[in-house]
Design a protein that fits this description.
The structure holds two protein chains of two kinds. Chain A is built from eight helices and 14 strands. Chain A is an alpha/beta fold. Chain A has a domain of 178 residues: 3-Layer(aba) Sandwich (Rossmann fold), CATH 3.40.50. In chain A, the strands form four sheets. A six-stranded mixed sheet of chain A has the order 6-9-10-3-11-12, sandwiched between helices. In chain A, helix 6 links the parallel strand 9 and strand 10. In chain A, helix 5 packs parallel to helix 6. The longest helix of chain A has 16 residues. The mean pLDDT of chain A is 90. Helix content of chain B is 68%, strand content 3%. Chain B has 20 helices and six strands. In chain B, the strands form three sheets. In chain B, strands 1-6 form a two-stranded antiparallel ribbon. A two-stranded antiparallel ribbon of chain B has the order 2-5. A two-stranded antiparallel sheet of chain B has the order 3-4. The longest helix of chain B is centred in the middle third of the chain and has 33 residues. The two termini of chain B are 32 Å apart. The chains are: A alpha/beta, B mainly alpha. Chains A and B meet through helix 2, strand 8 and helix 4 of A and helix 1, helix 15 and helix 16 of B. The complex binds adenosine-5'-triphosphate and magnesium ion. The site of magnesium ion has 4 residues of chain A, from helix 1.
């Protein structure tokens, strides 16, 4: 331990998920994972297919309740029981598999759950449809997404267009934390570039960003820290300057940490001599 | 939220390069009710041409009376279907609620007859409770609603049959039949209602026509212009006419038109007539108009005595003949149930299309998990929609009772299938997330026209359900074709 190894950020993380476990029947999708997100940093959450990445963020969003474990928000223990509660904290997610409602219009999808209300009569909240359509269109345009008409059903969009709308919505509403699960899988080179740009821009504004992808080149462009999970267990959190693409790919595939990175390995991770 | 996006450049949708037919197709592909509307036009024209008795007030009125009650059930089914769930138990809920209503009104030795208001609330309460039970079972067990409500269909029906196993059919006793529960209104109350309706419809006329004119100005496409002009004209005439009708009603409360001109007020003093006694809606609109003109020429209109109360039978408010149409020279037997049906249609359609909750309903049915991940409380939406569905089935039960004066354990058997058929004919998707209450309105009336028309054509009534079945399949095929144009 003679060389100096950079530390992970020492300030209070925005989110600290501690010892998260989640089972689906007998399948253990997450087996005691610790996960931290800092404001102003992009965390690349990496792992093989079925490693548990999507499950981890769904636990964070309240889509799934953890079998055990605790979540801290700015140091305070919180229970996130529904996606609405996560959204109220300022967390927005673009899910890999739960994006938009195909039969509904772009505008209605964009504002789903937080539609502008024109008038309220008792419990009845009347939508401001005109504002909804205009603002959805403008908000998407502002982040560089062109749509033909906000009235069109999402089902009539291409896969990439849908992904753009979902990302646009998360970027527009996200205040503190932005979660992107495979956001670029259907996108062209140009659109991917835009998404990578918002990602860094969001972190520069002080937001915490979780970026999940299988594309190591993309994640190397934007992430500050790589968190690798392997079969539901965390391998470690690695500062970008300490690793190269090959090392990360190797850890994703084998779950083994080279000895020189031992400082960043999770408890119980297997260490190999390189 | 607004300020962050203000000032962004506005994208103008380029539609100018679409032809007339392309826009027509696009519009139809985006309206669930398009297929049903086409079918409606065909069926209507076919019977109107082939069967002389078809498009007569008498035939239309009896058709509407039957379909309105079923239609209220179908609206509930549609509301639930759009949220992605089924309720096969509506027919049984209707049976139970009818018995609750009848039993409480009649008493039958067990207890004294209860006031109609309490019986009515209890009947609606039973529907709400049974709907709630459906929803709670669904959410707790995660069994498909098809199975849950197939189970409750049997269970609730058994409840209705057991409750009446000793009494048989519950009938209103003769003394209640002849002296139905009456409501007494001060003429001032009626005047306020009439004035309120006048103002409401005047406002609706204004908003509607203004909206259409804006649409007309904003659109470049000839088809859109034609449509905006056409709907503006029709809607404007209807709402303006209703404004005048309600204003005449209002005026007639204070002024005795019959003093001026010789009007036969018919059943002016019979108690079992909806709003019959005092405000004389029979005088509306032609007679009242004549009266007002006469007033201005002769100046002898006699103010009414505002002291006496107006009596209206509760059953007539619920499902009695609308004497206005009858005495205005239109034969037939239009009933107030049709007005309730239309009000239910308008209210539920408004909730679906124009409120935050409606958006949540579409999202829940369209992709429940995705909606939940976006923060929509999908389980709550499902339960609420089950409750609304049960409530509407119970409401239909009370209206049915008001007309027939009886309830039995097997009432409503098979209605669930007809309601689902109407919803599907109207363009709603069985898989949820897509549909229209107005489509269901068209579907319900289409089914009614078909049965009326076929009977008048001399086709055996026994085959009626078969024709509904054929129409159902044809409608879905048309809907799919229309939708593919998207
Ligand atoms: N709803 C569920 N029911 C049962 N098992 C599930 C469910 N969701 C996830 N799993 C299981 O949990 C494990 C982790 O899944 P998860 O979707 O989190 O993986 P992932 O890391 O996101 O993979 P990918 O890169 O393919 O998206 C998998 O073995 C999966 O089969
Ligand atoms: Mg995943």
């Amino acid at each position: 331990m003679s060389e100096h190894l950079p530390d992970l950020p020492q300030d209070e993380p925005l989110i600290y998920m501690k010892d998260i476990r989640r089972q689906f029947g007998t399948i253990v999708a997450l087996d005691g994972v610790d996960f931290k997100v800092w404001g102003g940093k992009v965390i690349g959450l990496l792992g093989d297919n079925g490693a548990g990445k999507s499950t981890l963020i769904k636990v964070l969003m309240g889509v799934y309740t953890p079998t055990s474990g605790q979540i801290y928000w700015e140091g305070q223990p919180v229970r996130i029981n529904s996606p609405q509660e996560a959204q109220n904290l300022g967390i927005e997610a673009v899910y890999q598999d739960l994006a938009l409602i195909p039969l509904m219009s772009i505008a209605r999808n964009f504002y789903l759950g937080r539609e502008p209300v024109r008038r309220q009569i008792g419990p009845i909240k009347i939508l401001d449809q005109e504002a909804m359509e205009r603002q959805a269109e403008e908000a998407l345009l502002e982040i560089g997404i062109h749509i033909r008409s906000p009235k069109h059903p999402v089902g009539s969009l291409s896969g990439g267009e849908r992904q753009s709308v979902a990302i646009g919505r998360a970027v527009y509403f996200g205040k503190r934390v932005l979660i992107l699960d495979e956001p670029t899988s259907a996108l062209s080179i140009g659109e991917t570039r835009k998404v990578l740009n918002y990602t860094t821009a969001a972190a520069e504004r002080g937001m915490g960003v979780i970026f999940i992808t299988h594309n190591i080149f993309h994640v190397f462009e934007v992430a500050d820290i790589f968190t690798v999970i392997y079969h539901g267990r965390k391998v470690g959190d690695f500062p970008k300057e300490m690793v190269d693409q090959e090392t990360v790919a190797e850890m994703i595939m084998t779950g083994q940490v080279p000895r020189r990175l031992e400082k960043y390995a999770a408890d119980g991770a297997s260490i190999i001599d390189d | 939220m607004t300020e962050t996006v203000a000032g962004g450049p506005k994208v103008k949708v380029k539609l100018e390069d679409l032809s007339f037919w392309q826009t027509l197709r696009a519009r139809m592909a985006n309206s669930p009710e398009a297929g049903a509307l086409i079918g409606f036009a065909f069926v209507f024209l076919f019977f109107a041409i082939t069967t002389p008795t078809f498009f007569t007030p008498a035939s239309m009125a009896s058709m509407l009376t039957k379909q309105s009650v079923q239609g209220i059930v179908a609206v509930g089914i549609t509301f639930l279907m759009i949220a992605g769930e089924f309720d096969l138990s509506v027919g049984s809920i209707l049976g139970v609620a009818g018995i609750v209503f009848g039993q409480l009104l009649i008493g039958e030795g067990l207890f004294d007859p209860l006031p109609i208001g309490i019986a009515f609330i209890a009947a609606l309460g039973s529907g709400i409770l049974l709907g709630l039970l459906n929803g709670v079972i669904l959410v707790l067990t995660r069994i498909p609603s098809f199975i849950v409500t197939l189970g409750t269909l049997l269970a609730y029906r058994a409840l209705a049959l057991t409750a009446t196993s000793e009494t048989g059919i519950l009938r209103l006793p003769p003394e209640l039949r002849e002296n139905p529960p009456l409501f007494f209104f001060s003429p001032w109350v009626i005047a306020v209602i009439a004035l309120g309706l006048t103002i409401l419809f005047a406002a609706l006329t204004f908003i509607f026509v203004r909206g259409r004119i804006r649409h007309l100005k904003a659109n470049v496409l000839p088809l859109e212009k034609i449509l905006a002009g056409f709907t503006g004209l029709i809607g404007g005439v209807i709402t303006a006419t209703l404004t005048i009708v309600f204003f005449m009603w209002f005026a007639s409360i204070f002024l005795d038109f019959s003093a001026v001109i010789d009007i036969d007020f018919g059943n002016f003093n019979q108690p079992r007539t909806l709003v019959a006694s005092y405000p004389s809606p029979e005088a509306i609109p032609e007679d009242a108009t004549t009266a007002i003109f006469t007033f201005f020429s002769d100046g002898e209109l006699i103010p009414k005595d505002m002291g006496s109360l107006i009596e209206v039978s509760a059953f007539d408010i619920m499902n009695g003949p609308l004497t206005f149409f009858r005495d205005a020279g239109i034969a037939g037997n239009f009933r107030s149930v049709t007005i309730w049906f239309l009000l239910v249609v308008i209210a539920v359609a408004f909730i679906l299309n124009h409120t935050k909750y409606g958006n949540a309903v579409f999202a829940t049915g369209g992709a429940g998990e995705a909606a939940r991940a976006q923060g929509i409380p999908v389980d709550r939406v499902r339960i609420i929609n089950f409750v609304v569905c049960g409530f509407l089935a119970a409401f239909a039960a009370t209206l049915e009772f008001a007309r027939q004066g009886s309830a039995s354990g097997d009432r409503g058997t098979g209605w669930e299938l007809e309601a689902i058929a109407a919803a599907v004919i109207g363009g709603s998707l069985l898989s949820g997330g897509y549909g229209s209450i107005y489509g269901t309105l068209i579907g319900v009336i289409l089914a009614g026209m078909l049965s009326t028309g076929l009977v008048q054509l001399g086709v055996p009534a026994a085959g009626f359900r078969g024709y509904i079945g054929v129409i159902l399949i044809v409608a879905v095929v048309i809907n799919n074709l229309v939708r593919r144009q998207r």
